[in-house]
TrEMBL record:
InterPro entries named among the record's database cross-references: Tscrpt_reg_PadR_C, Tscrpt_reg_PadR_N, WH-like_DNA-bd_sf, WH_DNA-bd_sf
Organism of derivation: Nostocoides australiense Ben110
Residues covered by the Transcription regulator PadR N-terminal domain: 7-81
Domain of life where this protein originates: Bacteria
Pfam families linked to this entry: PadR, Vir_act_alpha_C
Residues covered by the Transcription regulator PadR C-terminal domain: 92-178
Protein name: Transcriptional regulatory protein
Length: 185
C-alpha cells in the first residue's frame, strides 16, 4: 500500500482541501497509516499530475485561497483496483521493541519510562478511538450499526485500531509488571 492508496480512500468520502485531508488523516487513517502534511501535499500534487484527483481553487476572504481535491474517474478506478491487489505483509519497525530487547544490557529505568510513555499514548489514542466509535454508533449497538451502515470500512479499521491500542496497553502493563524491581524478580 502506498500513501496514494490511503489518500484515495480518504477522498472517497468527498472532496477535501489538503489541510482538511491532513486533519482527517490524524483522526481516521492514523490508526493504520501515518503521513505528515508535507507528504500529503506532495502526494496530492503528484496524483493531480497523474489525473487521479482534480484540484480546484476556492477563494476565501481574509484567508489565502485553498485548493480542494476530489477523485476523478481515474482515481475511482485506481481505488477499485487497489482493493484487488494482495497487500504486502506488515513489517513491524518499532524502536521501543529494540530497546526492550536490549533491556538486560542497558538502562532498565529508561526503557521502563519509555514503556510507560507508550502506554500513556495508547490510552490517549484509545480514548479518541472510543469517542469516534460512539459518534459512529450514535446510540445504536454494534449489530444495529453494521446492519444499517452505508459504509463498513471506516468502522472495521477503527475496530482494528481499538484492538491494537488495547493490546498495546495490556502488553505495556505486563512488561512493566515483569520488570518491576520491587516484585522480587
Amino acid at each position: 500500500m502506498a500513501l496514494q492508496d490511503a489518500i484515495l480512500v480518504t477522498l472517497a468520502n468527498g472532496e477535501s482541501s489538503g489541510y482538511d485531508l491532513a486533519k482527517s488523516f490524524d483522526v481516521t487513517v492514523a490508526n493504520y497509516w501515518t503521513a505528515t502534511a508535507q507528504q500529503l501535499y506532495r502526494e496530492l500534487d503528484k496524483m493531480a499530475a497523474e489525473g487521479l484527483v482534480s484540484a480546484r481553487v476556492v477563494e476565501q476572504e481574509r484567508r489565502p485561497n485553498k485548493r480542494v481535491f476530489a477523485l476523478t474517474e481515474a482515481g475511482w478506478t485506481a481505488l477499485r483496483e487497489m482493493t484487488t491487489r494482495t497487500p504486502k505483509p506488515t513489517a513491524i519497525r518499532d524502536e521501543l521493541l529494540v530497546q526492550v530487547e536490549a533491556i538486560d544490557h542497558g538502562s532498565e529505568d529508561t526503557v521502563r519510562a519509555a514503556i510507560t510513555a507508550k502506554r500513556d499514548a495508547s490510552h490517549e489514542k484509545l480514548a479518541r478511538y472510543l469517542r469516534r466509535r460512539a459518534a459512529m454508533l450514535d446510540g445504536r449497538d454494534e449489530a444495529a450499526y453494521l446492519r444499517q451502515a452505508r459504509r463498513l470500512g471506516p468502522y472495521l479499521t477503527l475496530a482494528r485500531g481499538i484492538a491494537f491500542e488495547e493490546e498495546n496497553i495490556a502488553w505495556c502493563d505486563w512488561v512493566l509488571a515483569v520488570t518491576d524491581p520491587g516484585d522480587g524478580a
